[in-house]
Amino acid sequence: MLSFALRRLLSAVPTLFVLVTLTFFLMRAAPGGPFDGERTLPPQVEAALTREYHLDAPLWRQYLDYLGNLAHGDLGPSFQYEGYRVTELIGDALPVSLALGSAALALSLLLGGVIGAVAALRQGRWIDPLLTHITLIGVSIPNYVIAPLLVLLFAVTLGWLPAGGWHHDRPTDMVLPVIALALPQIAYIARLLRNGLIDALATPYLRTARAKGLPLRLLVLRHAWRPAVLPVISHLGPAAAGLLTGSVVVEQVFGIPGLGRYFVQAALNRDYTLVLGAVLLYGTLIVLFNFVVDLLYGALDPRLRTA
């Protein structure tokens, strides 16, 4: 198991290197620059800023300098937020996005698991197609539609919850953003678990065990759940990374100071270092969660460890 984990972990290093390299050169190839704006800067000021941030150096030198700083844990200064390092900006925004994402992930696993299991175990009855159609709606409606509808219903019309903002001492601020983040994932997890559980229960050895009188509860808990949750685990890698780094749309709609706000503004303003920092964080989380998924796969299916 240890060698299996080490192989998976070592394969993440070239993946992150390629991700950083592609992002670095694609950002530089995009039209515009970090100091282009509606108001044109005087040539002397723009030249001074270019020298200060070493943008006058050859591209290959900028790339090597960035890799050198990155090796020491320095993501560089922000070009738009004067006086701030990228690590400071990400450090301030990450706890907010992590709080929302963790709550949304827990809610997705809980409700998605319950809905998927009920639909699979009641296959052929009225509740199965009902839940299937409800989850289809959840998959089809994107976040940028769900979030304003939640605000309109629960904040504007009913007045039960705040429409936006973020206060650490007011837990109600999290309710609508967490629901908006979780609803699509609840639908995905429910559908994956339903299909996986139905396929597992249809295997010959489980059908034989059920025909011999093994109770359905024991059949699911002892035998069917392992193969049934494998598709859900595969989905959780990128889904968890996306939830934990914050949804751009949801954070913008609810005015939440998370990573989504910085990522959008950095992309619009060509803040090279902040975009690179956000992409690197997101890529690292995807690699990390996929690594955890591989370990879970290896624990649930030992055949993968010897493949």
UniProtKB/TrEMBL annotation:
Alphabetical UniProt keywords: Cell membrane, Membrane, Transmembrane, Transmembrane helix, Transport
Gene Ontology CC: plasma membrane
Gene Ontology BP annotations: transmembrane transport
Topology within the bilayer: Multi-pass membrane protein
CDD domains attached to this UniProt entry: TM_PBP2
InterPro entries: BPD_transp_1_N (IPR045621), MetI-like (IPR000515), MetI-like_sf (IPR035906)
Family, as annotated: Belongs to the binding-protein-dependent transport system permease family. OppBC subfamily.
Protein name listed in UniProt: Oligopeptide ABC transporter permease OppB
Source species: Solimonas marina
Gene that encodes it: oppB
